């Protein structure tokens, strides 16, 4: 038996593990669900989520074994974390590292093993997601890829826990280069700040004729991020091509002057009214007729984007706006900032396979949770289904106190029945939502136009 090697970054790795504040904590259902899903996908008896401390490996979740951990000297995962890529051992009896390991020669009699390291930071593994069996096994490339995707979700959750205490600590104290009175694009004078998001700030501005617009400016700290700047540019290219009244309009694209850092900006339609999240928050829930009617209009807007090969990837109540003006109310879908696909280059997807997880977890389809680039029109249909469910019930179809728990529930459980929230929901309403929320995307509506028609028929 060969003792697991010590990684070169051992001190950093242990500091990361400590910062995640998860080792030796009580069991959590979300982690247990991920372990069960790993065992199910790989057809194995045993699955573990293992965290490797300085001298002990501890199981945050376990399926098929009684132990809660083992000495690090016996750790299969100790070998896995050193290599930073999947470790597959089809037959432990044939591998000198493990043939005489007490976990092989005695309980639980491991005859095969496959593990994927949990990378909280590039190159630093705090543990592994593993499957094992009491007989030799051969995993397919697809099964190993599935383990890697599940491990990515666990790593994301660990990063969130590590960063929890840092929330708000990275707010820049520097003055933003745009303030009331500034002139943008030689025409638009900024009047006030409307809000600040993760990558951009939005201002109200007006021209000499009094026309009011919203100006979205990239935050300075993101200027050096090629990926973020590209997403900003992609949003402009998407909006330039859309003509539907159900998407917020784009008027101008440009860059601030060199004195303001050359930051890119978008001049957008200024919407008066409220997004559906605020309406839901004030009312508790929205009448089915209104919710489905508004949803059908939103579907029309997104359908035009889909025709251009663009997937929104972030449909949710806060990105559907009920605009008022000119004596009528119009639904507008907003924020194509993380859309997939690029009509400017005639491509259905301009994403790399390793792009980080994009979207809002509560509204993300299973395939989007597994890989942000693996999306199509039916991914947005799932998100619209979650949005509509929340609008009419005031609750989400899948509960979770963390992103990992939401992920686990969406991947392993059925949506909470409407009857838990509504008295005698109509069969057509229930059928539409159920079809939106099918885990297999082939079983959902095949287009936003089809969903729009079904929504209107359900309330006819």
What does this entry look like structurally?
The chain is of the alpha+beta class and about 450 residues long. The chain has helices at about 10-20, 30-40, 75-85, 100-105, 140-165, 225-240, 275-285, 290-305, 365-370, 375-395, 405-410, 425-435, 450-460, and strands spanning about 45-50, 55-65, 70, 85-90, 110-120, 125-135, 185, 190-195, 200-205, 210-220, 250-255, 265-270, 275, 320-325, 330-335. The strands form 3 sheets. Strands 3-2-1-6-5-4 form a 6-stranded antiparallel β-sheet, with helices on both faces. Strand 9 (about 200-205) and strand 10 (about 210-220) form a beta hairpin.
How would you summarize the topology of this molecule?
Blueprint: H1 10-20, H2 29-42, E1 46-52, E2 56-63, E3 69-71, H3 76-83, E4 87-89, H4 102-105, E5 112-121, E6 124-133, H5 141-163, E7 183-184, E8 188-196, E9 200-206, E10 212-218, H6 226-241, E11 250-255, E12 264-269, E13 273-275, H7 276-283, H8 288-307, E14 320-325, E15 328-333, H9 366-370, H10 377-393, H11 403-412, H12 427-436, H13 448-458
Antiparallel strand pairs: 1-2, 1-6, 2-3, 4-5, 5-6, 7-8, 8-9, 9-10, 10-12, 11-12, 13-14, 14-15
Protein name: Protein kinase
Binding site for ATP: 216
GO molecular function, one term: kinase activity
